[in-house]
Amino acid sequence: MSRLRAAALALAIVVLPMQAGAAEQVNVYTYRETKLVQPLFEAFTKDTGIAVNVISASSGLEQRIKAEGDKSPADVVLTVDIGRIDEAVQAGITQPIGSAVIDGTVPPRYRDPNGHWAGISMRARVIYASKDRVKQDAITYEELADPKWKGKICIRSGQHIYNNALFAAYVAKHGEAKAEEWLRGLKANLAQKPSGGDRETARDVAAGKCDIGIGNTYYWALMMNNDPDKKPWAEATKVILPTFEGGGTHVNLSGVLLAKHAPNKANGIKLIEWLAGEKAQQIYADANYEYPIRPGVPLNPTIAGYGKLTADSLPIAQIAAQRKTASTLVDKVGFDN
Predict the structure, then answer these.
(1) Cα(169)–Cα(315) distance, rounded to whole angstroms?
(2) pLDDT score recorded for residue 32
(3) What is the distance, to the nearest Å, from the Cα of residue 113 to the centroid of all Cα atoms in its chain?
(4) What is the pLDDT of residue 16?
């Protein structure tokens, strides 16, 4: 690793205070924002007496763990999106979780067939639609390429992990040739060059630059409930849960992995199992506005207000297998140009 790269990673990493003197500990490396995960870890420690040490970063965790080798203190990797989950597995820094609790709690399509990862919450890739200009309340992903939407769609970069997963799901559903045709149609319907993030997509719909945008479910809830400056963007839009033709709504995961050389393996597994339990799942639902992975846990009222989520049945692992193809197609059609 170059000195410049190492310095960049060092600047990105936030280390929360170590639990000095704790008899039992677990070390978590995560891409999740500290404020989102800290309530979970505090509750876990209260329930189990196991202290949680956290390294949080915006990038580079896989490389860091790999560089640390068998001396790595990492026990658990907590991350978002099948893209980053898959990258961790491909980097060779994980091992099978081997938990009957996880196998009995997390539905098979939200687990790695080889046991290296499990989803612990879900988010859906949905439509932010103008309340004033869009009258329909149902839409398919396939319809996004319909010329009737020409000049009316906003979206962030096609290479962003959230869109890469959606496009990979389309490849898995329809094949590479049809996915390319669809991406060309979607690109032709864009109101502007892909840019910004999901919040900015809602902003541009509210401003009339486009009629519909593509974003994750939790961003809209965060704007509506947690950010007064951005609340008008949510108030000007409505969330439509799109579906694939003959299928359901595309969902992605927040996921958890067991590090390959976990020095506190037993505690790591305890944390993973706890995150799939009812208490943690309710925290995910209410604090992070995500869909619980565990059946029967109530949704946050704002998320429930979107309507009934019928998640697509495509296994997440099959989406991960098409990530590279989706990325190649984005470049091939010049989606971000």
Answers:
(1) 9
(2) 85
(3) 19
(4) 44
